[in-house]
Amino acid sequence: MKQVTSILIGAGLRGGYVYSQYALDHPNEFKIVAVAEPDPERREAFSKKHNIPQEMQFKSYKELLKREKIADCAMICTQDRMHYEPVVTALEKGYHVLCEKPMSPDKEEIIKMGEMAKRYDRILSVCHVLRYSPFFSKIKLLLEEKKIGQLITIQHIEEVGYWHHVHSFVRGNWRNEKESSPMILQKCCHDMDILLWLAESSCKKISSFGKLTYFSEENAPKGAPRYCMDGCSHRDECPFYAPRFYLEHSKAVEDGLVYAVTDNADSKHILDALKKGQYGRCVFYSDNTVVDHQTVEIEFENQVTASFLMTAFTNQCARRIRLMGTKGEIKGDMEAGIIEVTEFVSGTNEVIKLHTPTKGHSGSDMNMMKDFVRMVGEGKKGKTNADISVESHLMALAAEESRVNEAVVNFKQYTRPNAE
């Protein structure tokens, strides 16, 4: 396979540190030749790491995409509401596209991106990385082998983790729905995609319930300041005290979360950034609007039903699933890498232990990049495509409409309201 070349639009945590790592690990397969990033420090640091010359460094995607096509593909890793224009422009220019999820919080933009990929016959791959995990790949294989007969019911839970929720959805870039997207889309379009994939059927009806219950001003302890470092008297008993997390919590360093606070991750720079920065806010005095718990009930066209739960109030950041069929059941813990298969007739109970990397969505990130590079370089079909990503995104938006309007949503009517 020839070396695949790419441009990167958005050199933040996902684009600049995660997906682009594939180019450093596999230089003969993949090379990033240009970057567009408004933050000068990030742009310079990324360019140095990937040996990108000055003339291929841009402040904005518009400057980069004004040029004639200079690579095989484009990685679009901007914020949620900034995907549509660079994706469409890149497709028009002739690039295959890898787009960070979610595609967009706007239904019409999502549909149009899918249509544009078809019109120009381009790969549009959305970063639904869980399909590439050893865990869900194995579950998919077990279903295809009919280990539990006909699939009837799925129960799935995403434990966001109290620390992850506070970092990303109370203090972080995805805290405010109007600035980013609803929680069920931003965080859980992964899960809608997995449920769609495992059920092997289109959605028929969907309903949802959920609220922002805890992380709001009325729950602030008496006398709590607006910022953690302004002498908070509750810091010893508060699990969300910012300095403790960013200086002591292993996940802040291991998962690179501290780099959202400051590019210079020493204690002085961290503490300075927390004094009046968004990541130093009291969790009860932020401008967050997304829910902190939500449930979704789904009926698929093939009569499979699924129940999904997302909650911020867990210690671990984990996904657990249970699949019930006519001849048995499957239980699984993604982060532990354990799948348990029970057959009704024989009564056998098989425990499958997988090798599960601790980083990158349990190894999914690099597997996804490998698949995308192979699709571009060899023209082969991958594990997902734009049509599937469009449908799972619309499932998430339909769930949010149900939650807000307190009504069951007919999925066909939601996606094609003018169809007969």
Largest sheet: 9 strands, mixed
Average predicted local confidence, pLDDT: 92
Instruction: Return the CATH topology of the largest domain.
Output: Dihydrodipicolinate Reductase, domain 2
CATH architecture of the largest domain: 2-Layer Sandwich
Domain Gfo/Idh/MocA-like oxidoreductase N-terminal: 8-127
GO molecular function, one term: nucleotide binding
Domain Gfo/Idh/MocA-like oxidoreductase C-terminal: 142-402
Organism: Lachnoanaerobaculum gingivalis
Task: Tell me what the structure shows.
The chain is an alpha/beta fold. It folds into 3 domains: 4-126, NAD(P)-binding Rossmann-like Domain (Rossmann fold, 3-Layer(aba) Sandwich), CATH 3.40.50.720; 130-215 and 289-415, Dihydrodipicolinate Reductase, domain 2, CATH 3.30.360.10; 217-280, no CATH class. It is built from 17 helices and 15 strands. The protein has helices at 13-19, 21-25, 40-50, 61-66, 84-93, 107-119, 134-144, 162-170, 183-186, 189-199, 242-248, 250-254, 258-261, 267-276, 360-378, 386-405, 411-415; strands at 4-9, 30-36, 57-58, 73-76, 96-99, 124-126, 151-159, 203-211, 293-300, 305-311, 318-325, 328-333, 338-343, 349-353, 409-410. The chain has a 9-stranded mixed β-sheet with strand order 14-13-12-11-7-10-9-8-15. It has a 6-stranded parallel β-sheet with strand order 3-2-1-4-5-6, with helices on both faces. Strand 5, helix 6 and strand 6 form a beta-alpha-beta unit. The longest helix is centred in the C-terminal third of the chain and has 20 residues, at 386-405. The protein is globular and about 60 Å long. The mean pLDDT is 92.
